[in-house]
Amino acid sequence: MRATRRGSKLRGGGSRRKVDTQREKMATGGAARVADAPARRDEIDILNTAELRANSQKVLSLIHSKRPKNTMAVYMPKQREFQAFCQQKQYQDSDTVTEDKILLFLVEEVTNRPLRGKSRKAAPETKPEETRLAWRSVRAYISALTDLYRIQKAKGMNSHPSPREDNVREYLKSLQRRDAEREKAL
After folding, report:
1. Which of 11, 57, 87, 117 is most deeply buried (CB count within 10 A of its CB)?
2. Residue 55 sits in the same domain as residue 123
3. Any residues with CB less than 8 A from the CB of 20 and at least 6 apart, and which?
4. Is-contact 78 145, C-beta < 8 A?
């Protein structure tokens, strides 16, 4: 006979005692399954994480293999320059890309240094040491370092949030305004 429950009353031909006995059997048999659940859940989580990381690395390899050579030629020197900067500073987490490191790198090493060659836009009498990188060049550094961050993230080496957050964006906007003011002055 089948016992069903609606509200708090039993219906059907079964007695309350039978239903309680069935519940006890299910509870004791289920207790063993519940005890195994955390161990099994951990195993599943480990396998899922490994699968996700492997797939992420595969996709990253595909992206890099199909990337234009010019992009790699532009990104690699900038990434190496950042890594050298991090080595010089002797950060505990080495060259892990973070927003704070990018900002310090940009301020100390990139935006305020003179151009390495003669500027085509500057007046002929302007000395190279009086010129500075334009905001578009700084944006190329940010793009290269964001790419390095993505590589680190895919390899599981970087758990920080994206470095291209508010402060980096605002800093780039301030450089854009600085360049606009310079152009107006010319």
Report:
1. 57
2. no
3. none
4. yes
